[in-house]
Amino acid sequence: MKKILIIYAHPIETKSRVNRRMIAAVESMSNVRVNKLYENYPDFFIDVKHEQSLLEEHDVVVWHHPMYWYSGPALLKEWFDLVLEHGFAYGKEGNFLKGKWAINCVTTGGRAASYQAGGVNRFPVRQFLLPFDQSATLCKMRYLSPYIVHGVHLLNENNIKEVVADYTRFISFLRDEEWQEEQINREDSFNIFMSRGKKQ
Amino acid sequence: MHLDAIFFQIMIYLLAAVVSVPLAKKAGLGSVLGYLIAGILIGPFVLGLVGSEGEDVMHIAEFGVVIMLFIVGLELHPGMLWRMKRLIFGLGGMQIGFTALVFATLTALFWLNTAQAITTGLILALSSTAIVLQTLTEKGMLQTRGGRHSFSVLLMQDISVVPIFAILALLATQVVKDTGVISDAPEATESGWQQLLIIIAAVGTIIVGGRYLAHYIFKLIAETGLRELFTATALLLVIGIAVFMDAVGLSPALGTFLAGVVLANSEYRYELEDNLEPFKGLLLGVFFISVGASINFDLLIEYWALILLILTIVVSVKLVILFLLGKLFKLPLSHNMLFSFSLAQAGEFGFVLITFALQSAIYDEFTAGVLLIVVALSMLITPVLFIINEHLIQPRILKEVSLEADEVEDNNHPVIIAGFGRFGQVMGRFLNANGIKLTIIDNNPHNVQYLKKFGYKVYFGDMTRKEMLEAAGAAKAKVLVVTMSERHQIDKLVGLAQKHYPNLKLIVRAVDVAHELALQNIGVMGHRQAIFDSAIELGTSALSAIGFSRHESYRSALTFKHLDKRFMANLQQRYSKDDPHFLMETRKFSEHLENILLMHQKHPYQEMDCAWDTQSRIEEEKENQNIGK
């Protein structure tokens, strides 16, 4: 069993329809820790030492956020800037994250079809997330294909319930199963990997 | 008197104060009543511990008045007089004029002659500055509208003591002419005009001396750099004037009051006040005790019906006149009640004036004795009047107002703000801007109509009463924000809310660090020191002004705040265990901050923002380069 740290970045949680429900569903699971950045650091004043010790205590880091301009909300970037210090996360002495797993969980307004060549957004989500991928790699972490929820604006109540149930399954899977990251990374998203598993 | 006898007397007075005042405060009666009761207890008619000769007690009493008047005089700044001229001279002048007129007429109608009638009218027109100011301050009502009106009237009364003395001196001549009898009192044998001349000469001496001489003396003393010498000089000045006035047959209180006024503009004013303040507090206590001790119970028991009648007439006439004047000056009902009830007693000047009138043969022994008791009793019942106002009258006014408010709004307002001064107003505007419905409790009904128009629900009156909280909907509200300025009121309200509304979240503006910690100890969340944030805000501007980048100074302020928060949490744990640590920790705190600030000088960023500092990376890359070579 792995310990999961969900770094959750959503600036107006009270107006969130989908993310809030997803987070609420996994919040009280054992060995899952939800770290709400905007709730803990409303003034962007991140407690670096605390964040670093959280990272050390867990095996898998999930960056959970809505897609904002093909990246995360501003506070998440601040978190990267300040928490992943030289000498802690990277550099010759920076080996504290070595061997841990990292993954993005993103929600997008655009539908899946728009994230491909010829679509409005032209590139797959996986490609927009390259900075996360490379940051994790520089920190000697193992980056996994992202978990994506597309088209959240058009989800009705039943769809949302489905999304929440899927997400809960995803987090449990991360925590409980003995997965191979090579198999996951063969797919463009974790969702595809999981649905393949179901079919088998 | 033997030394040990003097010490014994002092001990009795101090003991009486130390025992009775805390008890009276615990019982919610205020310190003044505590002192008065202490005086009665140790006085000649109960325990007989002090003042078996009434004169002793009165002497001590007079010196308490002397110092108090000097300080009252010092605070009579011409600029302030000018700003409040409408209230002081208009309201105050009318109060003295009408009250004196009514009482003079009443007394003349019954049994006294013209001189006695005028004297009685003037004496009874005055109220007790000492009791009322102290009570209003203790209750945190001095800054309310009713409180300010009371203060203005008291000020006018203090000022008018000077002309009242002059009038009494003139009346004394009249008495001699009318009766043709030569009294035993030596002052009365001189003609009134002679007396007036002496007054003018003495007053002139004080004014000239205070204006031209005092400055050089104080400068000389201040240059020695010895603080105790300055205190000695201040005391010498007051006692000297008292002795001088006594020698020319005038009231020492009047003389020092004048000296105070003359020195109000001096650059040593604050130093004088500072030095005399402790003496004033102590002596005022003694004064109240001696008022209690000077009540002649023999006379009271013999003529209790007459005295009670006079007392009732005095208090009710004063109440009615004050109330009508309050109406004339458009005081809202609840404030008018505070104003009227606070000033319905006679004042400590009464003792001095009655004694003076007795010496000048205006009064006979009996009249003076009865009046002394009436004045003392009226002062004694002042706390009772306050209690009547607070518990019987204000709730009724409140009920009317709340009914009115209920008609405007009856939906649930999640936030109640207690205290709508400058601080509360900003808070209220902020919450209102976020679409939050507010209920406001305040003791200033000034803005009620205006606020209602904007959808606020407003209640005014004493905020620290359960009925008030209940009327404001504390049972349904989610949050109570306490932004009052007096600590004891804040604590009272917090206690009340915690006891009766455990689900109500409390957000309290703390008065200082110690208060903040005390609040944390009783489990109150979400408070900040009142001035902390704006101080840092200003500091941020200062940093930017001397060349820090704006974000740098902003971050620095954040760091400071968060360190402060962390340290407060640490501090609070120790504070709850035992107190001596508290001071130590506070000191450590400032040292710690000093370190942080020192570090800040060495590094471009705070310890929390190290990742923005590329120093370690540069070093590592240089190292790699060297290996590469």
Structure description:
The complex is a heterodimer of chains A (200) and B (629). By secondary structure, chain A is an alpha/beta fold. Chain A has one domain: 3-Layer(aba) Sandwich (Rossmann fold). Chain A is built from nine helices and five strands, in the order βαβααβαβααβααα. Chain A has a five-stranded parallel sheet with strand order 2-1-3-4-5, sandwiched between helices. In chain A, α4 links the parallel β3 and β4. In chain A, α1 crosses α7. The longest helix of chain A is centred in the C-terminal third of the chain and has 20 residues. The radius of gyration of chain A is 16 Å and the shape is globular. Chain B is mainly alpha-helical and 629 residues long. Chain B folds into three domains: 375 residues, Na+/H+ antiporter like fold, CATH 1.20.1530.20; 121 residues, Rossmann fold, CATH 3.40.50; 81 residues. In chain B, 74% of the residues lie in helices and 4% in strands. In chain B, strands 3-2-1-4-5-6 form a six-stranded parallel sheet, with helices on both faces. In chain B, β5, α24 and β6 form a beta-alpha-beta unit. In chain B, α3 packs parallel to α12. Chain B is globular and about 115 Å long. About 4% of the residues of chain B have low confidence. The chains are: A alpha/beta (200), B mainly alpha (629). The interface between A and B is medium-sized, with 14 and 13 residues.
